[in-house]
Amino acid sequence: MSESNSIPSLNKLAASEYIPSGRFGVEHSNPEQQEARHDVAEALASAATINHAPRNSEVAAAPLTSEAQPTPEVLPLDYIRMASSNLVIVRRAAQSDFDLAA
Amino acid sequence: MADVLKKALQLLTGTDPDALSNFKISKKKRPLKALTERELIQLESEIGSQLFGPIPKGHRREFFNLDPQTWIWYEESLDANGKTQTATTRYELQDKGILKVQEGARYTFLDGQELKNFTLAVQLYYERVMRDVYHRDPQTGQKLA
After folding, report:
1. Residue A36 near residue A20, CB atoms below 8 Å
2. pTM for this prediction
3. Within an 8 Å CB–CB cutoff, is residue A60 touching chain B?
């Protein structure tokens, strides 16, 4: 288990050919890249939750680069749904005359 | 009709003309307001395309959120004959999971490492777009100071 819970630097990801053969970043032969993949997966498992992440309302939000704090894993699909809908909301708010409610 | 409304307003506010200003909702300056949704998505895609490393010369890459259920990955490049090759992959959020839709009617649900990588990409996209494009805290949605 990786000791660091922070998202690895993007340089690690940038070093890889991230989208070969149409499979989202899966095929890598370079051991360093494979290690980067492992770190990324570990970081994802303990990534900070979003305040309005669904289902587990007791999950405390934590900054991405915080020191190691055990946080329950957010289901990937739930997180992606939350991010997708939030982006649309913020996009529409940016085009309107008024700000989002505080 | 307009007279009736005027009278009603006067009853509420009195005859002081300055009182009406209390009812005006202040319009904040919105630098992104002039942009269309498509243009905002293009701004977001500039960030999305950078998440996966440097883009080779002659290539074009886009990655963005289209709507609450859809993410798009687009790649464009020149083959050995100088012909433009394009590939569009759509990721649809469904109840069963994330359906990857590729050209040629190929459908698969993301799983395993590919799903983890996609989730991470979405996370990075969300964080950076919220901060860099919309100047909002990705966790709270509030405007950054």
Report:
1. no
2. 0.61
3. no
